[in-house]
TrEMBL record:
The lineage of its organism: Eukaryota, Metazoa, Ecdysozoa, Arthropoda, Hexapoda. Residues 63-146 form the PARP16 N-terminal domain. SUPFAM superfamilies: ADP-ribosylation (SSF56399). Belongs to the ARTD/PARP family. Keywords: Glycosyltransferase, NAD, Nucleotidyltransferase, Transferase. This is Protein mono-ADP-ribosyltransferase PARP16 isoform X2. Residues 162-276 form the PARP catalytic domain. InterPro entries: ARTD_PARP, PARP16_N, Poly(ADP-ribose)pol_cat_dom.
């Protein structure tokens, strides 16, 4: 069986093939440190949402036009979390405009989601002069998910780079390739990046896959992998990874995302992660699967999410 893959293997070919341009390409081997924070819309400073509707509409339209496919997926993952009966743990962060008297008004949020048409229609509606006055609730919610939650950013990876991304963790098992791959990119100044640089100093790193239910990925993107999201304990408590895509995929069953998505409502998602190679990472031995490893502890602070691989329902059944 294959082992969890060292991050240095295969990167030479990857670097030679791909030159990173933050406006055009999302598959640099230095995906984390090579991310340009200027590709993220600037913060609004002290202005509140109510004080700058025109700027909100402009920034939302910019995000949608720049990468509609990625925006669609990000919104779909948010919707999947909002419809889960475990929304208290899945829907983190939670939109503050749907908190009433310090309680989450999940029904009002779900009703608001139902009013939002496909994002391709939203782009056209944002050109209308009275769009905010007529659709303020929808614009506010989309703005919060797609613009306010802008770090980390989800960016589409060019299809010609898919093989290079998947070669980071070469698999021996035959599985259907993903329909889409997205880069998860944080700015150098983010708190997570500071923690990662401190924790990884002096260590090599590994690449591995992690499977989870669709509704968990909104929280995973913004808070990292959490032990309370993991139901497995076959080899002990921890967050589980595999060097085999086919091993992780069953732990990412098809889930219901958003009915208005251009990709359909039924999706499956796998995380490709980078792990710090130190004794906390337990690997398969003679009594366990050689292609599996796990990270003990309540939080995956020694793990960085780099890519999301997505499958659509009809593709998985081929």
């Amino acid at each position: 069986m294959a082992n969890l893959t060292n991050a240095t293997s295969g990167d030479a070919e990857f670097k030679a093939k791909v030159k990173f341009d933050p406006e055009e390409d999302c598959c640099s081997s230095t995906s984390r440190l090579g991310f340009d924070p200027q590709t993220i819309p600037p913060p609004l400073g002290s202005l509140t949402i109510e004080e700058c509707p025109k700027k909100k509409v402009l920034l939302l339209k910019t995000i949608l036009e720049r990468d509609l496919v990625a925006a669609d997926i990000k919104w779909s993952l948010f919707v999947a979390a909002s419809h889960s009966y475990r929304y208290d743990s899945c829907l983190r962060p939670y939109p503050p405009m749907y908190v009433r008297n310090e309680c989450k008004d999940i029904e009002a949020l779900r009703e608001a989601i139902q009013t939002i048409p496909p994002l391709s229609i939203i782009i056209r509606q944002l050109d209308e002069p009275d769009v905010y006055e007529n659709n303020s609730a929808a614009v506010n919610l989309l703005y919060w998910v797609l613009v306010r939650l802008r770090d980390p950013q989800i960016k589409s990876v060019n299809k010609e780079c898919y093989d290079s991304v998947l070669k980071r963790v070469p698999s021996e098992m035959a599985v259907a390739p993903p329909n889409l791959i997205f880069q998860v990119a944080s700015t150098k100044q983010s708190l997570f990046e500071e923690r990662w640089r401190t924790a990884s100093q002096g260590h090599t790193t590994l690449y591995a896959y992690h499977g989870s239910r669709l509704e968990n990925f909104h929280s995973i993107i913004h808070h990292g992998l959490q032990q309370n999201m993991c139901k497995r304990s076959l080899y002990g408590t921890g967050i589980y990874f595999s060097s085999e895509l086919g091993v992780s995929l069953p732990y990412s069953p098809v889930g219901y995302g958003w009915g208005g998505s251009m990709h359909g409502s039924q999706l499956s998602c796998i995380a490709l992660c980078e792990l710090i190679n130190h004794p906390d990472v337990k690997r398969g031995d003679s009594g366990t699967r050689k292609d599996e490893g796990w990270l003990p502890g309540s939080e995956g602070t020694s793990c960085s999410l780099l890519f999301l691989a997505m499958w659509f329902c009809w593709h998985l059944s081929d």
